[in-house]
Amino acid sequence: MAITEHDSAASDAPQQAKKKDRTHWLYISVIAAVVLGAIIGLVAPDLGKALKPLGDGFVALIKMIIAPVIFCTIVLGIGSIAKAATVGKVGGLALLYFIGMSTFALALGLVVGNIIHPGEGLDLQPYDPNKPKTENGTVDFFMSLIPGSLPVLPTLVVALFVGFALQGMGKSGEPVLHGIQAIQKVVFRIMMMIMWVAPIGAFGAIAAVVGATGWAAIGSMAILMGAFYLTCIIFIVFVLGTMLRLVTGLNIFLLLKYLAREYLLIFSTSSSESALPRLIAKMEHVGVSKPVVGITVPTGYSFNLDGTAIYLTMSALFVSTAMGMPMNLGEQIGLLVFMIIASKGAAGVTGAGLATLAAGLQAHRPELLGGMGVIVGIDKFMSEARALTNFTGNAVATLLIGKWTHEVDLDQAKAVLSGQRPFDEALMEESMH
């Protein structure tokens, strides 16, 4: 299975490159929309506040797609666990490590969020699905066109039952899994279509919040982004770096230097998926055996999302604080448990992180969904740090699991990372054909 994913990722490279060019334009559009929205909010506050329905409409579209995204990713995620576990010690060890590390990252996000209290003083308006209609008939008409959402927690429970039932069916359940995989492609295509409306949603949401609170909104968003980047750096250098040093004796900074070209690729595309084939090749070159790389890397791309985990909990705390309704400890723990389950398998698709965040808020505090529009505006600014952290976490995980299963040549690893045996780009070209 791992080889197939590698091959398909490689063979689809030209097709993916085209898609990346288009999403790059989306990225630029969102940045332009955020800047324009902030300017309008500062210069013409009343006009900015009047643009709030644009942000509300986008949040409603995200809400609409939450349940299908959660259902498909959980069912297929449980299927992936079954497949990964069948490969024995490596798969089981990898899954235990991924669950433990992503839980730690989620908890780290909560700790930092509780220390800095991002979003204080914004006083965003709570989202109330039952509120009376506005006086603007045109706005009401367009909002009524967007279907309501399905409840998230029952969807999660049904998805868990379906996933375990299909796992128990073995081979006879595979056609159903393939069918759900096809449905997931449709759901993610819809998600991508919704994300193309993100610039409009971000423009309306940022204009409204800046119009209402002025420079305070810009300051709060900058604090969240700065704290998120700093938390990701701390996680990579101190958490991952310490584990790498203790288990393998290798230096995290030398590993970061070795993966520099991949980081540039991820930074330009805001997605760690673009570097998947190169990570497989580089981890094999650094001395980890093919079977360990083939199992750990593709599984990690779905289950080891350290950057996304930090983003989910910090963003949820930002929204709750910005709306003047901070979560108590019990709600934070409940959110943590939900995110541990819901974040699995939702990697590599633009907007999946937003859908997971919205799902967590809707499941615990539906009134907090009104603050999602602001997160949409700054989500793109945080996507690079998220993708780089996810990627680094998977590179470190591959070396750790290689060491624990005695499937890594540490002498080769030290020689490669010190620059004595550089990676041959020609090898990468061969693996692509």
Instruction: Specify the CATH homologous superfamily.
Output: Sodium:dicarboxylate symporter
Which geometry do the CA atoms define?
Answer: globular
Strand content: under 5%
Helix content: over 70%
DSSP strand count: 0
Main sheet characteristics: none
The tally of helices reads 20
N-to-C series of helices and strands: HHHHHHHHHHHHHHHHHHHH
The CATH topology corresponds to Proton glutamate symport protein
Helix/strand structural class? mainly alpha
- Give the CATH class: Mainly Alpha
Q: Which residues form runs of ≥5 with pLDDT under 50?
A: 1-21
Mean pLDDT: 80
Features:
433 residues; mainly alpha; Proton glutamate symport protein; 20 helices; 79% helix; 0% strand; globular
What does this structure look like?
By secondary structure, the chain is mainly α. It has a single domain, classed as Proton glutamate symport protein (Orthogonal Bundle), CATH 1.10.3860. It contains 20 helices and no strands. The protein is globular and about 65 Å long. It starts with a helix and ends with a helix. The relative contact order is 0.18.
Helix-strand layout with pairing:
Layout: H1 2-11, H2 13-43, H3 45-50, H4 52-85, H5 89-116, H6 137-144, H7 152-169, H8 174-195, H9 198-213, H10 215-248, H11 252-258, H12 260-269, H13 276-285, H14 290-303, H15 306-322, H16 329-342, H17 352-364, H18 372-404, H19 410-417, H20 425-431
Helix pairs in contact: 1-14, 2-9, 2-18, 4-5, 4-7, 4-8, 4-9, 4-14, 4-17, 5-10, 5-14, 5-15, 5-16, 5-18, 9-10, 9-18, 10-15, 10-18, 12-18, 13-14, 14-18, 15-17, 15-18, 16-17
